[in-house]
Amino acid sequence: MPTMLRSLGALACICVLAGSQGVVAWKARPANAGKARRAERRTPSQKALALPAKEHDSAPAFHCRAAAKNESAPSPEEATRIRHLVEATCAQLGVRPCSLFTLIAERESDWRPWMRHVPRQYARTPNWGYLRNAERYGWAVERQSERRRLSLKNLHFHKLPDAQVVNAHFPDYLRWADGGLGLYAFHPAYHLFRWDPAAPPEVLCDPVIATVVAIRLARFAVHKLQARTWLDVHRVFGGRRPLANASTATLEGPDRAFVERAKAYRLNPFAKPRLGKLLSYHPTPDQDEVVHSIRVRLR
Fold this sequence. Notes:
11 helices, 2 strands, globular
């Protein structure tokens, strides 16, 4: 009890001394102070994912996330809705048939356009594909020490002074992690530039934009790599070169498996691809309007 009285007495003395210097003003704690402090502690990835969808003209309608453990597949109604978006994109761009794109989308993501195919917590080390494509997005990446292992702490990012486009999201590696994004499991470093080299990588989780990118990759395979069949285009999707000459008697491994899967989608794997011309195979000024028109038509 005496100890408590001495403490109260000392507190009273402090208050008197403070009062003699002027009025003591007590500030109320702002109601959102905790939220502000938590926002300051967010990592760049967390801040980016918290941005509103309209931060970029091509912002995705679907946010990227990893599938939860034992997460069930989309309902038949949802899968049908996404398939219709893919088919409508093919029709708008003049692609017939759309079977290759529905085949890949169903196989890679099971009609989950929001899918981040490798959980971000398991992809902490930058891969060479990401680093090799840095200049394409306006950056130069230097290793601070050749002896240390490849890691974010061992890398230094510089904006290229003569770059026409600088992607502000590129140094945030966790958003470009291995495994791919969206319906077609596209790695952003390899494929984002086909839509917009300045866009956030999450636009690949938009099913319409992802399908435009997939069609542009197919057109690139035909016009630049001399792909002559749907089988050749499928090989390019898998990171391989088109075949010089193909027949069912010579196919092995993935190619033979693709020919068998194509039957279920009524796709002739040896037919010449018909990929249309609208939107070319590189970014065009009218691409946002075309994508918007596809969404509006299917509302």
